[in-house]
Design brief:
Layout (H helix, E strand, L loop, with lengths): L6 E4 L10 E3 L2 E5 L9 H21 L1 H6 L5 H13 L5 H9 L12 H15 L15 H14 L9 E5 L8 H10 L3 E5 L5 H18 L4 E5 L17 E3 L2 E2 L5 E3 L1 E7 L10 E4 L12 E5 L5 E9 L5 E5 L3 E3 L4 E6 L2 E7 L10 E3 L4 E6 L8 E2 L5 E3 L1 E5 L2 H6 L5 E4 L4 E8 L3 E9 L4 E3 L5 E2 L12 H13 L2 E4 L5 H13 L6 E6 L2 H5 L1 H8 L6 E6 H8 L4 H14 L4 E4 L4 H6 L4 H9 L5 E4 L5 H16 L2 E2 L2 E2 L11 H4 L5
Parallel strand pairs: 1-3, 4-5, 4-32, 5-6, 6-28, 10-11, 19-22, 28-29, 29-30, 30-31, 31-32
Antiparallel strand pairs: 2-3, 7-15, 8-9, 10-14, 12-13, 12-16, 13-14, 16-17, 18-26, 19-25, 20-21, 23-24, 23-27, 24-25, 33-34
Helix pairs in contact: 1-3, 1-5, 3-15, 7-8, 7-18, 11-13, 17-18
Length: 653
């Protein structure tokens, strides 16, 4: 049977040609002459078609609705409506609705059907189809209240004076610092994050215990989040570098010494000392040492150098200084002198080798090798020609099974970029194509990103399953790293259910391009979890994967989709990092912190000034809560509107 010709509905902007198909044989928008403004009936027809599309997708995906937990069912239904509407370019329609003083559909994320119905009723009234007085739709606030309730379920009660919670990553030293955790909660932390990639169950238990004690002391609540490590897509170990200790005095801009290098001399042991200011030496050198004595040597570069004794540590071991740069290696001969007399002679003992590194520049070859064997820099023969290419290992088998020639491989947060030239079973040959500073040094335990490779890799590893045994007894929510498929979410749900811990909330970390592409499916899979779910925008890895130029766009889309699903969001990675680490935030960081209030939670990483950073962020979020709610500006009265700024300049209210 021949199909009927598509029926065109003329609408809006003559410069935009839109072929938005809402159903077979139907075109939603077509350009018309600018002299023919769209009438309310034409706009109403377009809105009604959007509504029909939303309901059609709801019927088509009825199975997902049935699988959702009761608290998430409305969110899944609204997400389906949102996806159906956002398949179309709404910009011409938005402009025309705005000209009539109606909702432009730009803030409908949490209430798609209620918004479409409200606009349709208003357009119907303008078209003379029904009374202009319209009763408020009780569904209009339902999405916002459901999102708020879901945030409470996962993150805990909303803090006083702000809607956005503050999460803090606990450093390893928190296991021995109950005072630090108390100060964090007192400064405004609402959640703390324990990272399973670091420390062990003994340290984690201490941290959680200190959190619970601080909760009781402060008469407040604090949720504990536990980050599963996930598959370790990182560079393996490298052959160690030279065993050398470099002593370098501090100099000013003109090269003048403003602080000498200082070291302690200690008896040499079989195990090299870990401290960077300790030199192990033959014990004969440590007898009858006095202030002002010197230790002379020829260092690894053949330079004559001396260390002068300026004091003693609590164990009466000599503390020495030098105002010259010195390179010490095992076997360097030291001569103990007092005046012109030689008192003893001995050697420097075992030193820790420098961390291994692979120097790289564009055009270099680097082999990615399956397994745990130590990697190494390019090896040269006697005449300086390459004998063996540089290599680095990776333990993830799926990488070697699924990567293809031409795919990109990024190392160390994208500072080193490579492209695959060839693939063997256990070896991938790479060509370095970009280094952030022209040259770079690749070290062990650095992240690997594969933006072009769709890894069929489980996000829940055997180690994660073992760590869950701790988590279900101690924490309130569990974060899964490297989530990319609905099967990953189902695996996490099943693992928690096997422990009888479905009450624990789950967090999906969105850190790859493939996870972002499948976010709607991930949200629907998470909707079946009784304990509630949240999404973390892991902006560090995500920026590397999709490109920094796309990060702002993608994080916006994640916020929209999660709001449509009534799923709370954690805004993560480098929030106020300059303040946490160095004591001073950049202007860009402060703006980022203000924007983070559009999420339900903001995560801070560790740093020496983290307590101050928590208080700073809390203050920013309180201030911004009266100006912005998700995408909607909140237009409270502005003091500057009275034009009396000269008298009230200090108020900034």
């Amino acid at each position: 049977m021949a199909q009927a010709a598509p029926r065109a509905v003329p609408l809006m902007d003559h410069e935009l040609v839109s072929t938005i198909r809402t159903a077979p044989g139907t075109v939603l928008l077509e350009p018309v002459s600018p002299s023919m403004p769209p009438s309310p009936p034409i706009l109403l027809a377009a809105v009604e078609r959007l509504r029909a599309c939303a309901l059609a997708l709801e019927r088509e995906r009825e199975t997902e609705l049935e699988r959702a937990a009761p608290h998430a069912r409305e969110g899944v239904c609204n997400l389906l409506h949102y996806l159906a509407v956002r398949r179309h370019d709404l910009r011409p329609l938005q402009r025309e609705l705005g000209r009539l003083g109606l909702s432009s559909l730009g803030r409908m994320e949490s209430r798609v059907m209620a918004t479409l119905d409200a606009v349709a009723r208003a357009l119907g009234a303008l078209a003379g189809r029904r009374a202009a007085v319209i009763e408020p739709d009780p569904r209009f606030e339902l999405g916002e209240s459901r999102l708020a309730a879901n945030a409470v379920q996962v993150f805990g009660p909303e803090p006083h004076a702000r809607a956005t919670r503050v999460m803090v990553t606990l450093p390893s030293e928190a296991a021995d610092a109950p005072g630090l955790i108390h100060e964090l909660l007192e400064a405004g932390a609402d959640l703390v994050r324990v990272n399973a990639a670091h420390d062990d169950a003994q340290a984690w238990t201490k941290m959680v215990g200190y959190v619970r004690a601080a909760e009781a002391a402060l008469d407040g609540g604090c949720r504990v989040s536990f980050d599963l490590a996930g598959p370790k897509l990182r560079t393996g170990t490298l052959e160690p570098g030279h065993a050398v200790l470099k002593l370098r005095p501090e100099r000013d801009a003109l090269g003048r010494v403003i602080a000498p290098a200082r070291v302690r001399l200690v008896p040499a042991q079989r195990v090299p000392p870990a401290a960077p200011d300790v030199v192990p030496v033959d014990s004969r050198l440590l007898h009858r040492v006095k202030l002002g004595d010197v230790f002379e040597m020829v260092d690894a570069r053949g330079r004559s150098r001396r260390l002068t004794v300026v004091g003693f540590d609590p164990d009466t071991r000599p503390v020495c200084e030098t105002d010259r740069t010195v390179y010490l290696v095992p076997g360097t001969v030291l001569v103990h002198r007092r005046g012109k007399r030689s008192a003893a002679e001995g050697e420097v003992g075992a030193l820790r080798p420098m961390p291994g590194e692979i120097p790289l520049q564009p055009g270099d070859r680097l082999d990615l090798v399956y397994g745990r064997q130590p990697g190494h820099a390019c090896r040269l023969n006697l005449d300086g020609r390459p004998l063996e290419p540089a290599s680095v290992s990776c333990e993830v088998r799926a990488v070697f099974d699924q990567i293809q020639p031409g795919h990109r491989v990024l190392f160390d947060d994208g500072t080193i970029g490579a492209v695959v030239k060839s693939v063997e079973r256990d070896r991938v040959v790479l060509e370095i194509v970009r280094c952030a500073d022209g040259t770079a040094k690749l070290r062990e335990e650095k992240g690997i990103n594969l933006p072009d490779t769709s890894l069929e890799l489980s996000a829940i590893t055997e180690d994660d399953l073992a760590d869950l045994a701790f988590a279900v007894e101690h924490v309130d929510l569990v974060s899964a790293s490297f989530v990319q498929r609905p099967e990953d979410v189902i695996a996490l749900r099943d693992a928690l259910a096997s422990h009888g811990a479905s009450r624990i909330g789950i967090v999906l970390k969105i850190e790859t391009a493939h996870a972002f592409a499948r976010l709607p499916e991930l949200l629907m899979a998470a909707a079946a979890h009784p304990g509630g779910a949240a999404v973390m925008v892991a902006r560090g890895d995500l920026a590397v994967e999709i490109g920094f130029e796309r990060l702002a766009e993608v994080q916006e889309e994640i916020l929209w989709l999660c709001e449509a699903a009534h799923v709370p969001v954690i805004w993560a990675t480098q929030v106020l990092e300059g303040l946490a680490r160095g004591g001073v935030p950049s202007r860009a960081e402060v703006t980022d912190a203000a924007m983070s209030g559009r999420a339900e939670c903001v995560m801070l990483n560790k740093g020496p000034r983290i307590v101050e950073t928590v208080a700073f962020l809390s203050d920013v979020l309180v201030r911004m809560s009266s100006h912005q709610a998700k995408k909607t500006p909140m237009m409270r009265a502005l003091s500057v509107s009275g034009m009396d700024g000269g008298r009230r300049a200090a108020g900034l209210s």
